[in-house]
Design a protein that fits this description.
The protein has a five-stranded mixed β-sheet, sandwiched between helices. The chain folds into two domains: 103 residues, no CATH class; 77 residues, no CATH class. The protein has nine helices and five strands. The protein is α+β, with helices and mostly antiparallel strands. The longest helix has 20 residues. This is Polymerase nucleotidyl transferase domain-containing protein.
């Protein structure tokens, strides 16, 4: 069985801590809150608040396994830069049982957005299991990401401001914890009333 995202994150953080304890303290698990889909193995996303990208990269180069433990056919090792902009850099660390994406930003607000997403999504999973099963099904059969799956299940609509042209409506919407949980309560009441029956066409079209 593949190691869980939280367990692998703690293993990864422990390796970093052995080299740079302060850097390890800046790391946060930022993976989406929905579970793996069958045999598909989700990435481990790590958010790092740090102002020295090169220092982080040097530590990642040390801890990257010399041989691959990936369950897929990717036998690459080492560290690959997959994204860079004025505010952030993303590195893919190969060789672990799951791909590990390390998102580094000097802005705490920027780096912690995915962490906020995860916290809200875990709360949704715990409080609204029926809606969570709907989000999992939508993610599985449509191929959308976790944030978009919840955005559509909760029918949040495009009512949230998107200040970054690279961000999606669901990225912004899933940061508003009160609005998300309020929408979940409304949808959960509908789901518990109608899910055992045939879905009304207006709602079925959403999926």
């Amino acid at each position: 069985m593949t190691i869980s995202q939280p367990a692998l994150f703690h293993q990864f953080q422990h390796l970093v801590h052995a080299i740079d304890p302060q850097l390890a303290d800046c790391m946060h698990l930022a993976s989406g809150g929905l579970p793996d889909l069958g045999s598909a193995v989700s990435d481990v996303d790590v958010a790092v608040v740090h102002d020295d990208v090169n220092a982080v990269r040097s530590v990642l180069d040390v801890i990257a396994p010399a041989s691959s433990e990936d369950d897929d056919e990717d036998d690459e090792t080492g560290v690959t830069e997959t994204h860079r902009d004025a505010q952030s850099v993303v590195y893919l660390v190969h060789g672990f049982p799951r791909p590990v994406n390390v998102y580094i930003s000097s802005s705490e607000v920027d780096a912690m957005r995915a962490v906020v997403h995860r916290r809200i999504e875990l709360a949704l999973n715990a409080q609204f299991p029926t809606l969570a099963s709907m989000a999992v099904a939508l993610k599985k059969w449509s191929g959308v990401g976790t944030e978009e799956a919840w955005y559509r299940v909760l029918e949040l609509g495009e009512t949230f401001p998107v200040t970054d042209k690279d961000k999606t409506p669901w990225f912004a919407a899933m940061l508003d914890e009160k609005a998300v949980l309020d929408a979940a309560r409304r949808q959960d009441a509908w789901a518990r009333t109608y899910l055992a029956r045939q879905l009304p066409k207006a709602h079925a079209a959403t999926f």
